[in-house]
Amino acid sequence: MIEIDEHDKIIHQPKLDTIKMVEHFIEEHSGEYKKRALWEHLPKKMMYQTYKVIFDYLLESGKIGVDADGHVCWVWNPELVKKYLADEGLIIK
User: What are the structural domains of the chain?
Assistant: First the structure.
């Protein structure tokens, strides 16, 4: 669950097209940028606060990861998930 403290109250909720734009950009540029640099290179500008909400959502949903150096990487692989879900010998808890 995304926790929001008093200083980070959400003023602008991201729209679906904005979330998808960030997802697509991260997927195309996986591993190239750190968190802030990624925001600075997005094709459309947005408030950093809004970007943080999207970033936290993508991180918590397992679509992105951050390596030891702070680079943002796209990790979501739906085809691999389908493969594992189709494996009858795999038990998911």
Answer: 14-86 (1.10.10)
Which pLDDT tens digit goes with each residue over 23-74? 999 999 999 999 999 999 999 999 999 999 999 999 999 999 999 999 999 9
> 29: which 2 tokens?
């540029």
All residues at 6 or more sequence positions from 42 whose CB lies less than 8 Å from its CB, including other chains: 21, 22, 25, 51
DSSP helix/strand/coil, 27: helix
Instruction: Label residue 76 left, alpha or beta by phi (over 0 means left) and psi (-120 to 50 means alpha).
Output: beta
Question: What tokens does 47 get?
Answer: 């408030």
Residue 45 CA, distance from chain mean position? 17
Q: Determine contact, residues 49/10, Cβ cutoff 8 Å.
A: yes
